[in-house]
Amino acid sequence: MKKTFVLAALLTAFASGATAQDKPKVDPATLEAVTKAMWPKVPEGWEKRVSFDETQKQCSEHRNEPPGAVFDQIKAREIATVKFPADGNVLGDWKSGIRIANDGRGGTFTDRPMTNGANCYACHQLDLAQLSYGTLGPSLHLYGKNRGFKPEEAKATYAKIYNAMSVMPCSMMPRFGYHNFLTEQQMKDVTALLFDPESPVNK
Ligand code: HEC
Residues with Cβ within 6 A of ligand 1? Predict the structure, then answer.
């Protein structure tokens, strides 16, 4: 009898401990200090990557679930950072795009010059031929086809890749253009991967 009681008490404690309102408050300043301490020898030009911007602070504070007003504020701030190609063409070469999307190499301190794969496959299914892919993000198979290959959808997708938080505040997806992690051409190539009817994504 005693054992059952202890177990029940433990379960109750666990259940109540797991509710959102009981989670300890996050202090963004402490989090930023811990992050910086993990990278004590940041090379020149990388400081921004270990500092929190206003959006990241708000996301930390609200455990990535910002209330409506903060959500809108973040979205407006992030949309303002998106730069579209000057000629308005967001579609590059899908064949180059597939190499970029399936390449997880690069982005390390020692890369000179910086060469980056986009690592999309680590979080998304892209096409049916992939041997493995991550599932943190939704499948992108048939992405352009399901959107009728519409130019305005392609433009919205370029913006998503440029800055994922301009669409979904506190997204886990990297802000590729915002951080200058991918070049304009690389982002165009990956957008073409999702929107070219000939791309394996749409087969
Ligand atoms: C670290 C994981 C991660 C990586 C890497 C990543 N994404 Fe995402 N992506 C996500 C998550 C999580 C979502 C869903 C939440 C959101 O919309 O931001 C998402 C959403 C998307 C969406 C919107 C999906 C929809 O249903 O509208 C697109 C398009 C997208 N990603 C494209 C890409 C492309 C292209 C790349 C590579 C350049 C990429 N992602 C890299 C995690 C990732």
Answer: 101, 118-120, 122-124, 136-138, 140, 157, 160-161, 164, 167-168, 171-174, 176, 190
- 15 inside domain: no
Instruction: Please answer whether residues 133 and 126 qualify as being in contact, where contact means their C-beta atoms are separated by less than 8 angstroms.
Output: yes
| Closest by Cα among 60, 108, 66, 92 to 158 | 92
Residue 121 Cα to ligand 1 middle (Å): 10
Does a structural domain hold residue 113? yes
* Domain membership flag for residue 150: yes
In ligand 1, the atom with minimum distance to the C-alpha of 190 is: 35
**Candidate of 161, 173, 184, 196 to mutate for ligand 1, largest count of ligand atoms within 8 Å of Cβ:** 173
Domain that holds residue 171: 84-202
Count of domains in the chain?
Answer: 1
**pTM as predicted:** 0.89
The verdict on residue 177 lying in a domain is yes
Residue by residue, pLDDT tens for the chain (203 residues) are 445 444 444 444 444 444 556 788 889 999 999 999 998 888 887 788 889 999 999 999 999 999 999 999 999 999 999 999 999 999 999 999 999 999 988 777 777 666 789 999 999 999 999 999 999 999 999 999 999 999 999 999 999 999 999 999 999 999 999 988 899 999 999 999 999 999 999 99
- Of 58, 30, 92, 49, residue with least CA distance to 165: 58
